[in-house]
Amino acid sequence: MARVVVLGAGIAGHTAALHLRRLLAPGHEVVVVSPNSQWNWIPSNIWVGVGRMAAADVTFPLAPVYQRQGIDFRQARAVAIHPEGSGEDPTPQVEVESTAPDSAGTRSRITYDYLINATGPRLNFAATPGLGPTGHSLSVCTYGHAEEAARAFAEVLARLERGERQTLVIGMGHGLCTCEGAAFEYTFNVEHELRVRGLRDRAEVVYLTNEAELGDFGVGGMFFQQQGFITSSRLWTESLFTERGVRPILGAHVQRVEPGRIHYETLDGTEAVQPFDFAMLLPPFRGAELQAFDRAGHDISATLFAPSGFMKVDAAYGAKPYDEWRAEDWPRTYQSPAYPNLFAVGIAFAPPHPISRPRTSVRGTPIAPAPPRTGMPSGVMGRTVAQNLAGMIQRGEAGPRRHASMAEMGAACIASAGAGMRSGTAAAMTMFPVVPDYQRYPRFGRDVGDTYGEIGLAAHWLKHILHHVFIYKAKARLGWALLPE
Hints:
Blueprint: E1 3-7, H1 11-23, E2 29-34, E3 38-40, H2 45-48, E4 59-61, H3 62-69, E5 72-82, E6 93-98, E7 107-111, E8 114-117, E9 121-123, H4 143-161, E10 166-172, H5 180-196, E11 203-208, E12 223-226, E13 229-232, H6 233-244, E14 247-249, E15 252-258, E16 261-266, E17 271-275, E18 278-282, E19 285-287, E20 291-292, H7 301-304, E21 342-344, H8 376-394, E22 411-416, E23 426-431, E24 452-456, H9 457-474
Parallel strand pairs: 1-2, 1-8, 2-5, 5-20, 8-21, 10-11, 10-18, 11-14
Antiparallel strand pairs: 3-4, 5-6, 6-7, 9-19, 12-13, 15-16, 16-17, 22-23, 23-24
Helix pairs in contact: 1-8
């Protein structure tokens, strides 16, 4: 009988674990290792961050779900992978450190036959001096961060109500950040809350981003058909910024954050300071702090992981210029080339290169979005790897047969632009494929018939519905497996 260990219980890891338990026969073990006791539907953290939802609305405890499903749950963080075992035991092992209240800090090892690394990102606030909740800016990356942002935003609202003017800066806290979509959502939710309270005229809202142009979103922008015409996400997004009176600062790398002051550099080499009363700046991501050792105890971390800390999989990692990037550079099975019983999904896998065009400032500072690997693609990866492992374990398949390349899959995203069942709006977007394929689609890199964008109240209703649907699915309620990733 086989034991599959899943590191991480975010969208990718949780999805993989639930499908593994569904697909594997009794007797095979599924073990989930996560430092968090709560599952968090992260896309709705932006609503927590403006006070529209509480943390309890976007979280639930993991242990009861896993107990009901027959999954062994360990509340711990992975510390090191020993893919060849140890001198005493050649069975592959992962070393973990407990985060449970009654055993915090205790280390142990879990043997495995297969391991899925779904550890997600390490929030690298340290990359920018003064960035983050322990510095001088806010975050919505976790539900705890979002609660803190909501409290600070409430104080801003109170000052505005007293007649004070306020400057709110929202965006990216480093030149190599990802998740521009989340910053976009939070910007327009904040702007919406100011407007519905009649306080908009006293507040300046600034969007500070590493995108060279609006509508890039870390995927190089999009083109789609609208009323018979081809339009771009740039024009579509610029019109929204103009309509809502949000001032963008584009192509920016934040150098440091001081109380009330953001120092940044732009692509043209300009260095400037942006004052603020409220700043929510997302951090860049790194891989989890995992090490790897061979059987003799030698450090082989560089073999398993890229310098970013993300795990290497079946991607083309050789350096090449932008014009030589190809869709086939991207992984299809997420299997480690070094150890075939290791897989990495979601944010945990190392992308071969960005999706957006790489840029550096005239001073030589890299300023370009890192590739997003969250949401729908993460879920699809988790399910696909689970299906492949079920085939390898139960049917003796020699290796992964199903593929989930981001250059071969589409994705749908609904970006909230303000909550409210009557006054809310959201941007509904689809793209196919996520990673452009200029060999297959020479003009735009994507199929414009399957790439779409529209903003309105109906999209907000859909996003609100999906909030409840995906939490229902994550709780593994009746019929959960029939719902799409």
